[in-house]
Amino acid sequence: MKLEIDLNHAQRIHVVGIGGPGMSAIAIVLHEMGHMVTGSDIRENAAVQSLRSRGINVSIGHSVDVVADVDAVTYSTGVPRDNIEILAASGAGVSVLHRSEMLAAICSLVRSIGVAGTHGKTTTSAMLVHILLAAELRPSYVIGAEVLETSSGASWTGEDVFVVEADESDGTHAALFLRAAVITNIDKDHLDYFGSLDEIRQSFISFADNVAGPVIVCHDDAQVVKMLSEVRSSSREIEFITYGVTSQADVLISNLSLTPTSSECDVNIDGNTHRISLPTFGRHNLLNAVAALVMAHQFGITVQVGIKALASFDGVERRFQDRGTFNGVVLIDDYAHLPTEIAAVITATKQRFPQRRLLAVFQPNRFHRIAAMAGDYAECFEGADLVAITDVYASGTPRIEGITGELVVQAIRGADADKAVAWCRTRDELVQYVFEELRPGDVCLSMGCGDIEQFPDEILMAHDARKNSR
Question: What is the DSSP letter of 362?
Fold first, then answer.
């Protein structure tokens, strides 16, 4: 792989689409390295305001003037290639780099650890950073959400270890220069880019093949097992370390205990059994924790230090996040947007609140995803007592005629005709329906990767309005 930019000396770098979680994180790292960073986006948001507070100049709207005196421009997949800033920079002979190329250049500077997988990579990355901080290694990192412990999704310390969430949605994961990596799992998503699950799996093989050292993978995942078989029957030489509850795993997990106050398991590393206890919920988080622990151990951190750190892990923004209470109702928000994630979070919610009625709220995301996968959502809400589905959040994707959230409702009803599921096309309908349905003692779990994150606040406002009207 060829580096497209040398970040060892200060440069003027402009970031197009700087308000997105991935690009804002890259901007922060470049800024903290000492580069002169500017950016642009089409709208104001919290990320833009945070970047400005750090001294990064962000323009709203696009203009050729902002790239007149820069050395390089970087952009995300969500930015069209005919963007006027990209065209102006290209025409002037300025280096124009996709975010994967910029991340690759950052990774090349230090020992970099990539955390990849369809589900769990954000939490696993944050757990790994938490352990490294506890071990006083002062890691740099780029993660796709705010780490609650540090109130940031990115940092550059100048030390020798960098943790990067290796996103597969546009092939970025396979472009990075990595010393070690984690693959949490492989599942169906981003079919507009890959085309099939087989292609997704092949992309993770390419990702692993680029890693200079160990690749830590979950042996409980069927597609990972298939990947291992394919690699071992080829001429590739990849150093895999497996973990999981299956007996074939190199690092064996056993004696799981999932209670309303904690998640625990035994883990056998190097022939010694240790007990992990997390303040977070769900079997999936125990798997994430073991992946982070094994990776940290590869970098010289003792298992004991890692386990102690995990016991105080605060979590990540929008991952099973408490968002308030009223009249005995608990509001939980989560980023889950794929069927496997939804099922896991519902199970974790029932773990924490075993005797409570659960109302699950879901906002589907991206028209092409729902067009390809609506039927896959049929059974993932099984653990919820009541389900409310709203319309698709575009996330910048073009509308497809006939593709709405109602397809998810139809899939659920097709699997269980008696399932209590409501179709709420508009946001106002959703808030009104859910607010009227909630009763003391309920748990309301809202899920999705769009603006559904504002939903708990809207429910609280509805409660306040009702209270003030009396």
Answer: E
pLDDT grade for 148, boundaries at 50, 70 and 90:
confident
- What's the mean pLDDT in 392-413? 94
Average pLDDT for residues 313-319, to the nearest whole number?
A: 91
**Domains in the chain: how many in total?**
3
pLDDT confidence bin for 243, thresholds 50/70/90: very high
Q: How far is CA 467 from CA 311, 401, 444, 454, 461, in A?
A: 39, 41, 19, 20, 10
Q: Let me know whether 404 and 288 are in one domain.
A: no
Rounded to whole angstroms, the Cα distance separating 415 from 396 reads 30
Which secondary-structure segment (H or E) carries 201? helix 197-209
SS3 string, 215-260, reads: EEEECCCHHHHHHHHHHHCCCCCCCEEEEECCCCCCEEEEEEEECC
Q: Which residue has the tokens 């590739």?
A: 236
Question: 115 lies in a domain?
Answer: yes
3-state class percentages of the chain: helix first, strand second, coil last, to nearest 5: 35, 25, 40
79 and 43 together in one domain: yes
Quote the CA–CA distance of 163 and 165 in Å, as a whole number: 7
Closest C-alpha to 67, from 79, 50, 54, 49: 79
My answer on whether 89 and 123 are in the same domain is no
Looking at the predicted structure, is the pLDDT value of residue 259 above 90?
yes
Verdict on whether the full-model pTM lies above 0.85? yes
Evaluate whether 225 touches 204 at the Cβ level (below 8 Å).
no
Residue 7 belongs to some domain of the structure: no
Give the DSSP letter of residue 428.
Answer: H
The answer, yes or no, to whether residue 247 has pLDDT greater than 90, is yes
Question: Is 6 part of any domain?
Answer: no
- Do residues 260 and 114 share a domain? yes
CATH number at residue 250: 3.40.1190.10
* pLDDT at position 1: 60
Mean pLDDT of all residues in 127-144? 96
* Distance from C-alpha of 67 to C-alpha of 62, rounded to nearest angstrom: 10
CATH classification of the domain holding 52: 3.40.50.720
pLDDT at 397: 84
Res 2 pLDDT > 80 = no
Range of the structural domain that residue 68 is part of: 12-97
Give yes or no for residue 252 having a pLDDT over 90. yes
